[in-house]
Specification:
Oligomer: homodimer
Strand order of the largest sheet of chain A: 2-3-7-4-8-18
Helix content of chain A: 25-40%
Largest sheet of chain A: 6 strands, mixed
InterPro entries (chains A, B): Cyt/Met_Dipeptidase, Peptidase_M20, Peptidase_M20_dimer
Radius of gyration of chain A: 24 Å
GO molecular function, one term (chains A, B): peptidase activity
Protein name (chains A, B): Peptidase M20 dimerisation domain-containing protein
CATH topology of the largest domain in chain A: Aminopeptidase
Number of domains of chain A: 2
CATH architecture of the largest domain in chain A: 3-Layer(aba) Sandwich
Shape of chain A: globular
Distance between the termini of chain A: 27 Å
Structural class of chain A: alpha/beta
Domain Peptidase M20 dimerisation (chains A, B): 202-358
Number of helices of chain A: 15
Keywords (chains A, B): Hydrolase, Metal-binding, Protease
């Protein structure tokens, strides 16, 4: 029976922190932008870099699976002691584009340390967090005689930033590489800087595109203006009708399936440290706006929403052009909460929009991609152990929080493999994910690794598979 | 006293029609797109081409005036017999861009004859119509012993398609090159194919741009969606509020100064041949929409309007992007009728839009260019003579009509030189002006020249300056 000396592993990762940051730099310098077809070779290169790291650490069955899109990397280590759980780690090596490059104050594809932050594209989303797992497992392996406390499978995507289009099909074709007792995903922010949290739900996404056509082409506003439908105005009228005066989405049946949140949970939200002014200031906004009767956290966590993501019609270049535009397009996305049927909601929104189209205007609604919502069973013991490990590493309270975002893999694991996911993210809410100057807090990088080092032995121990010498005082700090 | 033999001049232009069309081809092949700064040399080249033609015909004092923008060409012929009126011909050599080029079925910068139409950019707007004047004056000069029936000044703009920004300042600095008894502008469509008309008013234009900002930059729709203002939705709400349910513009004071149109004139509109279905079909529209209580002709001729010309916000590229857009822009133009104060209306619209901006959204309204409206004194004898000449050439009734469009020069001549303008256009309503496959009807090219050949001697004769041998039967056909 292996005795896991977590203190020794922590000391090792602290000693090697500079090397590990350098390793993150190597990873970030690979420009693996999945949205850019021209960068497909770099996406493959990032997958290969990861596979090589996994081999160095001692993982087995390392494979790079081809898909219709970018590759998926898998590996495992399945020699844990009897009774130890099997855990799937999911992450991704692809990143968002870096445009507008001029808005970065550091090199986008490199790691720059400034003010205790690690800046660079992918530093937090998700290369940095994937690497934190590898660093922790490597340290456990090296301080545990080449062994790990638990069986570990890895599935590392390279299409997460484009909605993981290949993932579900690949998972269904390779269930043996996916199935585990539960999954861990580190691809989200903590509740706040130095305030660790575990996510309990993710909102899904339903995308739609509305296209109106009122004439064969743009026409002269002098000759025809005032007498024919204006596609841009018709679109504005439709868009305005999608919410009522209380900020509720006015699509019939839109809130179907939204679970009642207990008064207890809602009261819990009120007790969370939340500085609305700072939250607004972080994005340069001056006030909130949303569904009446719900707080800001509730609006982003437990309520479905409908947002316009983009609009265009007629003359969009500099200067003036006296036309009545013949076409107008809106991009719309809805966030769904667990319990809702995204396909059904998508059809309802599409049908409703078509029903709002004014006379003499053609209205086409394209039903685009869907990411299902997901709720996690936060009563599972793995969650409580994670709370303990985070509390130990960060020395502060840990919150169970919901997340407004979406990760396709989490819904797929729940819906198709009955697997819950431990959402243990190490980012920060104002980390500029997807924007210029993306960053990961050095403190989170360090403490996150230490939480993971504590977590794996604790998980094995709770299953009766091994023991740990980690000082109890640290665990319960 | 010169005897003008109009029949001889007509025979000459008929005999030379192929050469004249070839000459139009030379003019159209010069890519004089005033909106494109890269094409400034071609705009200059078009002005030079015109100046050379004027010299060939026998005009005097030919000058190419530099401005802050594109040049203005002037010339005159002032040796008419005593008592002959002095007339200013205004036109322009610049053209609209040809994008999207793929939508053209002919070479945009060339003349292609198909189905009795002359296709090409500028064929009708305005190179073709400018050239028709030159062809008529050339034929009169050659059949009249090197003389013209009237004194003629020419002012040919190269910035009409960008709102003639240099014109008024240049006119004020050069009044002697402008002042005349009245002006003739051929830069508009006839009432219908083979249905000649004289314009009696032009609607002015007031341009504005609305920019909203709700955050420092686009933000993640999962993290913030549902809880902060969405700039695109805020814009849609403003735009929808600009009209009431009856299609009236809901800006306080918007209709100030709109003259009452006599019941007699409105009844006259009803008697005009107007096939609404064909009018709609010509632009691929299926129904009308506009201010309650007014017919389609009234909506485009005698009522001010407010149209959205363009919209953009957030993600406008292919695919989906789950953001809450931080900015949204609308381009708006209003049409004003003569009697209204465009500067005052612009301020009212701008102020009203700012007052509609929702909380926590910054709203900036830029007051852009203005083209004043213009009404013509259609009782002046020059108009009646034009009606006669058109009736003679086309052999059909001539209508006095209003025009929904705007020509800056016409308002400037009225407001600053007290000059009325004879709006004698030879285009067609469905001529694709500003769009792909712009065309001029060969019949209008031919008959328009013949109408001009009849017009000049008749004008001189009415002033007692000369006589004409034109058969009376043709004049009154």
């Amino acid at each position: 029976m292996t005795i896991w000396n977590v203190e020794q592993a922590i000391a090792l990762t602290r000693a090697e922190e500079d090397q590990n940051i350098a390793r993150l730099g190597d990873f970030v310098r690979i420009e693996s932008v999945s949205m850019d077809p021209a960068k497909a070779p770099q996406v493959m290169q990032a997958s290969q870099w990861l596979a090589k790291e996994l081999g160095r650490i001692g993982f087995n069955n390392i494979r790079i699976h081809e898909t219709d899109g970018h590759p998926i990397v898998t590996a495992d280590w399945m020699q844990a002691e009897q009774g130890a759980p099997t855990v799937l780690i999911y992450g991704h090596v692809d990143v968002q584009p870096v445009e507008p490059v001029a808005d970065w104050t550091v090199a986008p594809f490199d790691i720059t340390m400034r003010d205790e932050r690690l800046y660079g594209r992918g530093s937090t989303d998700d290369k940095g967090q994937v690497l934190m797992h590898l660093i922790a497992l490597d340290a456990l392996m090296r301080t545990g005689g080449g062994k790990l406390p638990c069986n570990v499978k890895l599935v590392v995507d390279a299409e997460e930033e484009i909605g993981s289009p290949s993932l579900l099909g690949w998972m269904k074709a390779n269930p043996e590489l996916v199935q585990a007792d539960f999954a861990i995903v580190s691809d989200s922010p903590m509740y706040d800087y130095n305030v660790p949290s575990i996510g309990t739900s993710l909102r899904g996404i339903v995308n739609l595109e509305v296209r109106l056509r009122s004439a064969g082409g743009d026409v002269h506003a002098g000759q025809f203006g005032g007498a024919i439908p204006n596609a841009a105005r018709s679109l504005a009228r439709i868009l305005v009708s999608l919410h009522d005066e209380d900020g509720r989405v006015a699509v019939p049946g839109f809130y179907e399936g939204v679970p009642d949140i207990s008064a207890e949970e809602r009261e819990g939200y009120e007790k969370l440290p939340f500085e609305e002014k700072a939250w607004l200031a972080s994005i340069g906004a001056t006030g909130t706006e949303g569904e009446a009767g719900f707080s800001t956290l509730e609006r982003t966590w437990i309520r479905p929403t409908l947002e316009i993501n983009g609009l265009f019609s007629g003359h969009t270049a500099e200067g003036t052009k006296a036309i009545v535009p013949a076409t107008a397009t809106a991009k719309i996305s809805c966030r769904m909460v667990a319990g809702q049927n995204p396909e059904a909601i998508q059809k309802k929104v599409a049908r409703h929009i078509v029903s709002l189209a004014p006379a003499n205007v053609l209205c086409e609604v394209r039903e685009l991609s869907i990411v299902p919502p997901a709720a996690i069973d936060h009563r599972m013991p793995a969650v409580q152990l994670a709370v303990d490990s985070l509390r130990a590493a960060f020395g502060t309270d840990v919150f169970l929080v919901r997340d407004g975002g979406a990760i396709p893999a989490v819904a797929h694991l729940k819906d198709h493999f009955a697997m819950d996911t431990l959402l243990m993210g190490f980012g920060c809410p104002d980390e500029n994910k997807h924007g210029p100057d993306e960053w990961l807090a050095l403190l989170h990088f360090r403490k996150g690794i230490e939480a993971l080092l504590a977590y794996w032995p604790a998980l094995a121990q709770s299953a009766g598979a091994s023991t740990t010498t980690t000082e109890k005082t640290r665990i319960s700090a």
